[in-house]
Structure formats: C-alpha cells, structure tokens
Amino acid sequence: MELFLSICLGIGLSASTGFRIFLPMLLANIATMNGWISPGEQFEWLGSWPAFFTLLTASVAEIAGYYIPFVDNLLDTVAAPAAVIGGTLLSTSFIEIDNPVLLWGMGLIVGGGTAGLVHTGTGLLRLFSSKATAGLGNPVVSTSENIASIGLSSLAIFLPITALILVVFLIYMLLKRLLKS
C-alpha cells in the first residue's frame, strides 16, 4: 500500500508541475519540512531551508511572468521541457522503489509524461486564449492554473488516491479533446 500511495503522490505532484513548475516543488518542500510527507534518501535536500528560499523565489518569478501578456506564451515554450524535468524529479523523489533504474524510468515515463501532457493542455489553452482575447484573457487562465497547481499539489499531499483519480480524469479529458480536433 505504501508503494501505491507514493506513486499516487508522485503522479499528483508531477501533474501539478504541468500547471506551474516551481509551485508544486515549493509545496512539497513545505510539506516535507512539516513532516507531512517524506522524500527518498537522495532527495532529503527537498526539505531544507535553502531549497525553500530558492523555490519560493522561483515560484514568485514564475507566477509574475505568467501575468505579462505574450511573455506568458514565451514562458510556455521554455517551460515545456522544464515541466517534464520537474515532473520527473518530483515523482522520483517520492516513489518508493529501491532499484534506481526502475525508479528513474518510472519517474520519467509516469511523472515526466504526466507533467508534459498537462503542460501541453495548458499551453494550448493559453494559445487559444491569446488568439481569442488578444492576450487580455490570459490573466484569468494564469490565475486558474495557479489555483489548479496549488489545489492538485495539496490534494496529492493530503489525499493522494483522490489526486490520482483527478489526474486520470484530467488526462482523459485532455486526450479526448486533442483527438477530437
């Protein structure tokens, strides 16, 4: 059961990085520092004060950048590979598997793949918003993504099975929408 819960936690946090890269890492850092979750031995740095200040600074900069019209679209392009890396790192940090090859493989495929899919969906939504509203609707999209990232990260930390169900539903809806067009 512990392995299953750690996979649910990893997938929930990695999906959150599809919305915002640094915010789920910051929330995982805060949860780790408070003892609510615990990363693997190689990832104990995630619960440190230097990680907190670094992730806090990066989160504030990322959130602010998404509120600047057209800069947000540029950030989406740059953030695509970073979301996959962040999703891989977060899922690998919490999945409890002793074999490093299996751990990193699963982290990349499940965590990175989930983050990449979610990020693709949000990037397409922002692109549509930019075209439909000339960028004026993008702050609404950014606020929604911030709320989704915080909400899904919190859900993954406190109710990991519920987070997994929500991520599966979210990916199903995204793939259904992408295949329909």
UniProtKB/TrEMBL annotation:
Q: Which UniProt keywords apply?
A: Membrane, Transmembrane, Transmembrane helix
Question: Which is one Pfam family of this protein?
Answer: DUF4126
DUF4126 domain boundaries: 7-175
Q: Does the keyword Kinase apply?
A: no
Answer whether the UniProt record assigns the keyword Membrane to this protein: yes
Q: Which domain of life is it from?
A: Bacteria
According to the record, the segments passing through the membrane are 19-37, 49-68, 74-95, 102-127, 147-175
**Identification of the protein by name:** Uncharacterized protein DUF4126
Name the source organism. Answer: Dyadobacter jejuensis
